[in-house]
Amino acid sequence: MIYGTGIDLTELSRIDAMLQAGLKLPEKVLTPAERAVFATYGAKRRVEFIAGRFSAKESYSKAFGTGIGAQVSFQDIEILDNAAGRPEITKHPYAGSAWVSISHTDQFVMTQVILERGNE
């Protein structure tokens, strides 16, 4: 049974501007494991990666029903690719299952998260 669903749309140019301005976006948004992946990419892919994780974590917080803030932080949610390259939510505060989809264009990243609870 679905507990919640959330979607988010993020402009890549906004994330790129934040990175260029020297803001500590990777430290704020990415977990240590995600930062290790981020560090292996070139400039364009770094923007896509962090924008995707930012957007997916926003989507998660909407599905959870709290938004990013006191109850759920960016560090509470971790999204890593599996062996096939599919992003998976590997750490999160919800007790049920969490599913994520991340899609990019040249200008935007769009994400959706579905939180599912077991049969009760």
UniProtKB/TrEMBL annotation:
It catalyses: apo-[ACP] + CoA = holo-[ACP] + adenosine 3',5'-bisphosphate + H(+). Transfers the 4'-phosphopantetheine moiety from coenzyme A to a Ser of acyl-carrier-protein. HAMAP family: AcpS. One of its GO terms (molecular function) is holo-[acyl-carrier-protein] synthase activity. Its cofactor is Mg(2+). Belongs to the P-Pant transferase superfamily. AcpS family. Residues 5-111 form the 4'-phosphopantetheinyl transferase domain. It comes from the Bacteria. It is found in: Cytoplasm. Its main location: cytoplasm. Its EC number is 2.7.8.7. It comes from Lactiplantibacillus daowaiensis. This is Holo-[acyl-carrier-protein] synthase. NCBIfam families: acpS, pantethn_trn. Keywords: Cytoplasm, Fatty acid biosynthesis, Fatty acid metabolism, Lipid biosynthesis, Lipid metabolism, Magnesium, Metal-binding, Transferase. It is an enzyme of class 2 (transferase).
